[in-house]
Design brief:
Blueprint lengths: L1 E2 L2 E2 L10 H9 L35 H4 L22 E2 L3 E2 L41 H23 L3 H16 L2 H5 L2 E3 L11 H9 L3 E7 L6 E6 L9 E2 L5 E2 L18 E4 L3 E3 L4 E2 L5 H10 L7 E5 L5 E2 L13 E3 L4
Parallel strand pairs: 5-6, 5-10, 10-13, 11-14, 13-15
Antiparallel strand pairs: 1-2, 3-4, 6-7, 8-9, 11-12
């Protein structure tokens, strides 16, 4: 779907289509007939489509999901060269540039469905932010898709036994220690694991064994701000404070530790997350800590560090819905990679 130059698609984890992902989140049922005289058929043209080819999925449009009547397409609209109803392009992408005529002028939308909209694509790109002429319903659909996927992934992780988590964690620790990027890096940031994440204790011990510098996150509550503060040793972890999120981190009044970007920056960041796809898209827990921190890294003289996500194989999805400000991971390590 084209929305003022922004392409959108929804694909869930484990093979859900966008319509199924949004439909599950909103308990939608049947599509409503299309009131216009569009040659492509009588399904609601605002319905979320599933990649390329075939008939529309049995899903509601984002506008209908929010309890509003979805707009029908006019027979003509200002500025369209053929003065016809909106074209249906390859891959069931709809050109909605006629909507811009009721707001402010916008560049002509592309008429071909890019690779990002085909099956297995990176996912949904968020509509333009405030002032960009975006449609709120699409942003709401993105949030709904992310919520639905997070719920599914949490359920998968709850079903994963302790012994299996330890087995995969040991396997990934060996992969990391033998990884060329890890071996070449001197300043490394790594997360302290929660129970539903790959356990990182063995990696942290090896960082100090190899004489590298280790940095860990300190999250600021009620914001998206995070710092990476230096650990003095693996044993230093026992001196940290347990937060309400059940995460160990340096206390707020701990000002003696070096912050990575106040010094030489970082060579490598190991990233947590709830879900990932093989294109490097990451679904976090919704706060945006790592995306915001990586933006700060890009302004540092040393530049953006290499990023590696550590994941259970159960966290790998067919496709993760993403927004324009979601930063891709350079590499994802899991059992079968």
């Amino acid at each position: 779907m084209v929305l003022h130059g922004t392409w959108l698609t929804l694909t869930g984890c484990g093979g859900w289509s966008g319509a199924e992902t949004v439909g599950r989140a909103h308990q939608a049922s049947k599509p409503r007939p299309f009131a216009g005289n569009h040659p492509a058929g009588k399904a609601d043209p605002m319905a979320v489509r599933d990649g390329g080819g075939g008939c529309p999925k049995q899903g509601w449009s984002p506008a209908r999901l929010r309890g509003h009547r979805a707009p029908t397409f006019p027979q003509t609209w200002p500025g369209h060269p053929a003065q016809q109803s909106p074209p249906r392009t390859a891959g069931l992408c709809w050109d909605l540039s006629w909507l811009a005529a009721t707001r402010e002028p916008s560049p002509a939308a592309p008429q071909r469905c890019p690779e990002a909209l085909r099956p297995g694509s990176p996912g949904l790109m968020e509509p333009p932010r405030e002032g960009g002429g975006g449609v709120p319903e699409m942003a709401a659909a993105l949030r709904a898709a992310k919520r639905a996927l997070r719920a599914q992934l949490r359920q998968r992780l709850r079903a994963l036994g302790t012994a299996e988590k330890q087995r995969q964690s040991r396997l990934l620790s060996r992969k990391v220690i033998g990884h060329s990027r890890y071996q070449e890096s001197k300043r490394i940031a790594i997360f302290l694991s929660m129970p539903d994440e790959i356990q990182t204790e063995e990696i942290i011990k090896d960082i100090f064994k190899q004489g590298k510098e280790c940095f860990i996150p300190r999250y600021k509550p009620d914001s998206n701000h995070m710092d990476m503060l230096k650990l003095s040793s693996a044993e230093d972890i026992s001196s940290l404070t347990l937060t309400s999120w059940n995460i160990l981190q340096p206390s707020d009044d701990d000002s003696a530790r070096e912050e990575a970007l106040a010094g030489g920056g970082l060579d490598l960041i190991f990233m947590p997350g709830l879900g990932f796809d093989k294109k490097g898209n990451r679904l976090g827990r919704g706060k945006g800590y790592y995306d915001t921190y990586l933006e700060r890294c890009m302004k540092h003289p040393s530049g953006k560090p290499y990023t590696i996500a550590l994941a259970f194989k159960e966290q790998i999805c067919e496709s993760v819905p993403v927004a324009e400000n979601d930063v891709q991971v350079d590499e994802i390590l899991y059992e079968d990679c």
